[in-house]
């Protein structure tokens, strides 16, 4: 009897970790060509904000932050977990900051994305614990060309990987234990803005040895298998050197800074992949890496190099298959340009950071409507003094209501997003039997602000839910509908402004007369945010 109880005890003990994990774990799934993030088994759009770097290191500091986030209608907070604070003494872990984040996120009905500030943060290794920093023999750093060390752990060292990975695994085990059932944490970022400075690669002994070795077979085989699908940057480097399938880095990719960066990015990717594999084995959440975008015109080494940047996305894909997506941090102009680059090769757009500035409300509409974006998140989101007035909060209020429509209709290609500035040409789309033209509202000429030198960015989404029926959401746009058939014209049966409550449409104002220019257009004035339900007919 005793031994039977013992056996049952063992079985229960073995089952325990699994029992802690819910069957509806957050996960990425492919629907048609679209990747969706499922949270509680439903497609989820992260209407997020990333905390300033030091905010989550103090519960007291965070206390007044939560109501601010709530006022801006965030459904997700992106927050760092600091290696130096979770493992201040080697092997002794303290997750109390994570636990408090979890508690407060749940109280405020928000999800969490956790950022692992481990070996690397904005290229540097500033978040490594003192016991790592103080022992550079055991935890070696990168060396620049002249042999000078910098506070960046080298990826060419097992101790660095082991120490970082042990701590990361402990974090994932802890999340599983305290959150495996509730799934407050939905996705994890591995490291932060990995990047090499001040040269394009490190010159430590192990790195120099690896540089003269043949390009690893895993990378060669990825290149061969994906030859026709490679992005132009890597393909052309390989092509220029005759598509060689053996030889060292300079033989395969040519001599120069670009090859140094490719080499370095492979080893960063492989290191990060090991972390992601180990972390997922502990608790299988989706994982991503983020990049500090390079300034055009600068050479590798002059910008944080070798991170998951557009021109080396293929190397990251090859070296880090356990990393689910590569994410851009937006502090550069040309939003569309970078979004286009990051959505190549089926990489889903996930924006963990964008400068908290004017125009992000319009960009959020565009990102979700045009790119099947999974996440949008201004950086240092708590830094506002007037959360109730923030345009991004107002945009999130609208996006929250139409999220279910976006995720339902996007896989069928029935969602379009727009971003318009003063010089933008009208955007035209044809959907079903209608030709739709979207303009900046100020193009009307008589709109308040139209005579100003600077026009605010305007953005919106059109969701086609039936042949003659659309929902329009956004700010600062004017839309006309024409029949796609030459012998017909289009008219409005009705335009209603309203809201969704629990996915149920509640019409409020009937928009006619001046609001639709007596049946000529749909208009959402600048600085206003609304959803309008449009029914059309042709005659
Ligand atoms: C990008 C980094 O990822 C953030 O952690 C922060 O340092 C911001 N830059 C500051 O602009």
Q: Low-confidence stretches at least 5 residues in length (pLDDT < 50)?
A: 1-19
Average residue-wise pLDDT? 95
Gap from first CA to last CA: 84 Å
The percent range for strand residues is 25-35%
Instruction: Report the strand count.
Output: 23
Shape: globular
CATH architecture annotation of the largest domain:
Alpha-Beta Barrel
SS-based class: alpha/beta
Tell me the domain tally.
2
The tally of helices reads 16
What molecules are bound to this protein?
(2R,3S,4R,5S)-2-(hydroxymethyl)piperidine-3,4,5-triol
Largest sheet: 8 strands, parallel
Q: Any idea what the radius of gyration is?
A: 25 Å
Topology diagram in text:
Elements: H1 2-19, E1 27-31, E2 34-39, E3 42-43, E4 46-50, H2 59-62, H3 65-71, E5 76-82, H4 83-86, H5 96-107, E6 111-121, H6 130-133, E7 141-143, E8 149-153, H7 158-179, E9 185-192, H8 205-212, H9 217-225, H10 232-240, H11 249-253, H12 257-282, E10 287-292, H13 313-319, E11 325-330, H14 335-342, E12 353-354, H15 360-371, E13 375-376, H16 391-409, E14 415-420, E15 427-431, E16 434-440, E17 458-466, E18 469-475, E19 477-483, E20 490-501, E21 504-510, E22 522-524, E23 530-538
Parallel strand pairs: 4-5, 4-13, 5-6, 6-9, 9-10, 10-11, 11-12
Antiparallel strand pairs: 1-2, 2-3, 7-8, 14-17, 15-16, 16-19, 17-18, 18-23, 19-22, 20-21, 20-23
Helix pairs in contact: 7-12, 12-13, 15-16
């Amino acid at each position: 009897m005793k031994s039977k109880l013992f056996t049952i005890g063992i079985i229960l003990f073995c089952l325990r970790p699994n029992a802690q994990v819910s069957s509806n774990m957050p996960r990425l799934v492919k629907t048609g060509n679209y990747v969706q993030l499922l949270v509680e088994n439903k497609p989820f759009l992260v209407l997020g904000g990333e905390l300033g770097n030091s905010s989550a290191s103090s519960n007291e500091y965070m206390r007044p932050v939560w109501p601010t986030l709530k006022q801006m209608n965030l459904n997700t907070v992106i927050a760092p977990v600091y290696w130096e604070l979770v493992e201040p003494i080697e092997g002794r872990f303290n997750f109390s900051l994570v636990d408090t984040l979890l508690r407060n996120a749940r109280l405020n009905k928000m999800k969490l994305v956790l950022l692992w500030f481990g070996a690397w943060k904005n290229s540097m290794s500033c978040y490594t614990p003192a016991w790592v920093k103080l022992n550079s023999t055991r935890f070696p750093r990168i060396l620049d060309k002249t042999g000078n060390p910098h506070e960046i752990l080298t990826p060419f060292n097992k101790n660095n990987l082991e120490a970082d990975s042990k701590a990361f695994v402990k974090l994932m085990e802890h999340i599983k234990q305290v959150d495996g059932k509730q799934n407050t944490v939905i996705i994890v970022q591995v490291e932060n803005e990995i990047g090499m400075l001040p040269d394009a690669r490190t010159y430590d002994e192990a790195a120099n040895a690896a540089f003269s070795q043949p390009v690893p077979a895993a990378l060669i085989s990825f290149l061969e298998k994906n030859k026709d699908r490679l992005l132009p940057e890597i393909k052309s480097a390989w092509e220029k050197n005759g598509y060689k399938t053996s030889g060292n880095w300079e033989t395969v990719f040519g001599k120069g800074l670009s090859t140094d960066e490719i080499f370095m990015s492979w080893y960063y990717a492989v290191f990060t992949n090991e972390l992601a594999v180990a972390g997922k084995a502990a608790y299988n959440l989706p994982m991503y890496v983020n990049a500090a975008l390079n300034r055009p015109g600068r050479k590798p080494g002059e910008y944080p190099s070798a991170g998951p940047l557009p021109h080396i996305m293929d190397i990251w894909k090859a070296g880090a298959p356990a990393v689910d997506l590569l994410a851009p941090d937006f502090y550069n102009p040309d939003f569309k340009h970078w979004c286009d680059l990051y959505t190549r090769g089926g990489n889903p757009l996930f924006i963990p950071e964008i400068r908290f500035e004017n125009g992000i409300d319009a960009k959020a509409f565009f990102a979700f409507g045009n790119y099947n974006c999974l996440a949008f998140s201004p950086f240092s989101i708590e830094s506002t003094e007037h959360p109730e007035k923030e345009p991004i909060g107002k945009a999130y209020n609208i996006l929250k209501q139409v999220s279910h429509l976006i995720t339902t209709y996007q896989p069928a290609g029935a969602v379009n997003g727009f971003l318009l500035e003063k010089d933008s040409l009208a955007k035209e789309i044809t959907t079903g039997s209608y030709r739709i033209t979207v303009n900046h509202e100020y193009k009307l000429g008589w709109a308040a602000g139209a005579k100003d030198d600077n026009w605010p960015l305007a953005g919106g989404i059109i969701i086609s839910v039936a042949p003659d029926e659309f929902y329009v959401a956004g700010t600062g746009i004017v839309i006309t509908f024409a029949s796609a058939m030459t012998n017909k014209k289009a008219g409005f049966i009705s335009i209603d402004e309203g809201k969704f409550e629990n996915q149920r449409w509640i019409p409020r104002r009937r928009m006619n007369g001046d609001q639709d220019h007596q049946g000529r257009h749909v208009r959402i004035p600048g600085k206003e945010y609304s959803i309008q339900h449009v029914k059309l007919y042709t005659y």
